[in-house]
Amino acid sequence: MSVIKETLFQKLLNQKKVGTGEYSELSTSNKNMKLIILILGYLIISFFFVFHFDNKNSESNRYRLQQGMIWEDLPLVADFSYPIYKSNDEYISERNLASETALSVFIVDNNLKNATLKYINSLYDNLKNFPDRITDLGISEKLVKQINDLNKQQRENAILSLRNFLLTYFEESYKNGFVNVSLDKLTHSEIIVQSAPN
Question: pTM here?
């Protein structure tokens, strides 16, 4: 004689038939266990969909590029080497054309501004405290003579006003910005300014 094993579905149907047509006969612990499994399953599935689709969408939006767009992010480097199916001359001409049409990129360097302001304050301190060593600071002899011809109060006022003028001048100049390339080498009327960390 072969024994047919009762499936889980059949067991549930038999329990339903034994009861009043509802699952009232099931113990409270079985009901709680099913509820916990249902809630955990829902949370796991929700977690998967939320994080899976969010990352996919943000990555696809981040790299949604079109031909002719300007890349504004950090340099993009491939993880692997791949062949370029072009002749060397064609590749070089396309690369040169791209570099001619690309805007010049400049990086903001705040260290230079800080170094300049520090130098001006150092110059002021040296002119004020060590007037006999003025020639060691790289100041022309003509200006040294003019400073030395002044009395002590006039010299201090002149040095202070020179310091204030230089600080104001460089503050305004650095607000507008300096570039370390002559204007005749800039091929476009626009530039790109890259600020850290992008």
Answer: 0.43
